[in-house]
Design brief:
CATH architecture: 2-Layer Sandwich
Distance between the termini: 34 Å
Radius of gyration: 18 Å
Structural class: alpha+beta
Number of helices: 7
Number of strands: 15
Low-confidence stretches: 10-35
Order of helices and strands: HHEHEHEEEEEEEEHEHEEEEH
Number of domains: 1
Oligomer: single chain
Mean pLDDT: 88
């Protein structure tokens, strides 16, 4: 009976996700001026399973958006895309502009035009800042791009280390992640707030990466305290999911019943 319940729950999650991808933005598609799409390569579930090599190049990725996040092949650090520039943040602390020929196993990008800008004039933790954003959302069932820019009294980040084949699952790979605490820094948090039904396809809830104003340091944001700045929200109604057509993705078992627990373990926050 327990196995049947897990199978039924998995089918329901899959069905909700497929229906959302197929029908979620129908109204917006009829109005070209309102149509907004997030382009995503592969899935978070595949990344959890240790599928760290993809075929999508950074050059191709940037044709789909000027804003986003992800990682690089071999799980070589963190990616943050701002104003059309893809930054490669490595575990050794170095940052450089990614080559257009670099490839990614997982990334999400979009064209970012804010619908809402919220000034921040009093200090706010991650929990407090995201709570304010939540009160300004049209619906919890849509996708939102989030850009938070300003002065931070603290930002705690992690940066995954480059892996070698055979690759371990993400829960093991992130156990050796490099963590850094920034103090009194100006910079930008960029990422997405995904609906709960996207868990496993994406990261449900908030997924944010940080880079400082000098574009010299950053990583996956685990915690922060914003002193002053702005929070911008962009609403998206479409998700273009590009799945690998070859390689280990085709044989991977992506039906894990503890996705939320594993994602929380790897993503933190």
């Amino acid at each position: 009976m327990a196995g049947t319940r897990h199978a039924d729950d998995g089918f329901r999650r899959w069905a909700r996700t497929v229906l959302a991808h197929r029908f979620g933005g129908v109204g917006a598609r009829h109005d070209a001026g309102r149509a907004r799409e997030v382009y995503q390569s592969s899935t978070m579930g595949a990344l959890l399973d240790g599928i760290y090599d993809g075929e999508v190049t950074i050059g191709e990725l940037l044709t789909h958006g000027d804003f986003g996040l992800g990682t690089f092949n071999e799980l070589d650090g963190e990616m943050v895309i701002l104003d059309g520039v893809c930054h490669h943040l490595r575990a050794d602390g170095s940052v450089q502009v990614a080559a257009t020929t670099d490839r990614t196993p997982f990334a999400a990008v979009a064209h970012f035009t804010p619908d809402i800008t919220i000034p921040v004039t009093a200090p706010a933790t991650r929990a407090e800042a995201t709570a304010v954003i939540d009160t300004n959302l049209r619906s919890e069932n849509l996708i939102y791009g989030i850009r938070i820019t300003g002065t931070f009294s603290s930002v705690r980040t992690r940066t995954v280390r480059k892996q070698t084949a055979p690759y371990p699952p993400l829960t093991e790979a992130t156990a050796g992640q490099a963590e850094t605490d920034f103090r009194d820094v100006t910079g930008t948090l960029a990422g997405f707030r995904m609906p709960a039904y996207e868990q496993g396809v994406s990261v449900a809830g908030y997924h944010l990466h940080f880079v400082d104003d000098a574009r010299s340091h950053g990583g996956h944001a685990l915690a922060f305290r914003l002193v002053a700045g702005t929070m911008q929200i962009c609403t998206f109604t479409d998700l273009h999911l590009s799945l690998p057509a070859s390689g280990p993705f085709l044989d991977a078992d992506l039906t894990s019943t503890n996705l939320s627990e594993r994602i929380h373990q790897t993503e933190g926050g």
